Amino acid sequence: DQQVKQNSPSLSVQEGRISILNCDYTNSMFDYFLWYKKYPAEGPTFLISISSIKDKNEDGRFTVFLNKSAKHLSLHIVPSQPGDSAVYFCAASDNAGNMLTFGGGTRLMVKP
Amino acid sequence: NAGVTQTPKFQVLKTGQSMTLQCAQDMNHEYMSWYRQDPGMGLRLIHYSVGAGITDQGEVPNGYNVSRSTTEDFPLRLLSAAPSQTSVYFCASSYSGASGLSTDTQYFGPGTRLTVL
Questions:
Q1: Which residues contact residue A2 at a Cβ distance below 8 angstroms, ignoring those fewer than 6 apart?
Q2: Tell me, what's the pLDDT at B98?
Q3: Using the 8-state DSSP alphabet, how is residue A96 labeled?
Q4: B99–chain A Cβ distance below 8 A for any pair
Q5: Using the beta-carbon criterion (under 8 Å), do A43 and B110 form an inter-chain contact?
Q6: By the 8 A CB rule, do A10 and A111 touch?
Q7: HSE (CB half, 13 Å, CA atoms) of A71?
């Protein structure tokens, strides 16, 4: 059973609008969360992270929100740009920090 | 810095053959890991290492071996390839970052696409 789930396989957004990517987890031992971005034929690249002691972390156009009681996190991209078109993976780690569990990914398409 | 490099980029094997996927990093990272990516499954951890001489199993270790004799290199061995091992394989390395966690801010290689017939 997948402990980290991204229930939307794909998302299409108009350029300039907000993109919201969602992620749910089941393991209450997870306390550090990351988002990675992946272009075709390349390895994933780190985007943004959040610790469970926070409920929001912001980096430029990217903001991650964490709702621990709901075991839910989301990535907001504002404004969306065509170059943001990629597959986005959320990942979770427990406090031992040696293993990451990834979600299945969401393919974001930003239309000009 | 070259970052994380992986060879080969593509490989086709027959069932039962063995091979080694190479991974090297030049960032002096202690933590290295191997993942496989399958459609809809995200990335799944195969094996990881927290330093030279130390390795441990991840989520899907069966059919794979690793060793870590140096900080720089972390090869993945398929002892007897099976069609179920057809996948894209990614190697990653990381430093602890602000969180202090080994898996914070991992740097991934470009991947090896493996097909087992």
A1: A103, A104
A2: 64
A3: T
A4: yes
A5: yes
A6: no
A7: 12
Pick from B37, B41, B103, B104 the residue to mutate for testing the A interface (most A CBs within 10 Å): B103
Q: Peptide bond preceding A79: is omega within 30 degrees of 0, i.e. cis?
A: yes
- Cα A37 from Cα A25, distance rounded (Å): 19
What tokens were used for A50? 């959040």
Q: Find residue B64's DSSP bridge partners.
A: B78
Provide the β-strand partners of residue B116.
Answer: B13
Q: Which two tokens stand for residue A27?
A: 């393991």
Span A42-94, pLDDT tens digits: 999 999 999 999 999 999 999 999 999 999 999 999 999 999 999 999 999 98
The two tokens of residue B78 are 């398929």
- Mean pLDDT in chain B? 93
Q: Which residues pair with B100 in a beta bridge?
A: none
Mean pLDDT value of segment B108-114:
97
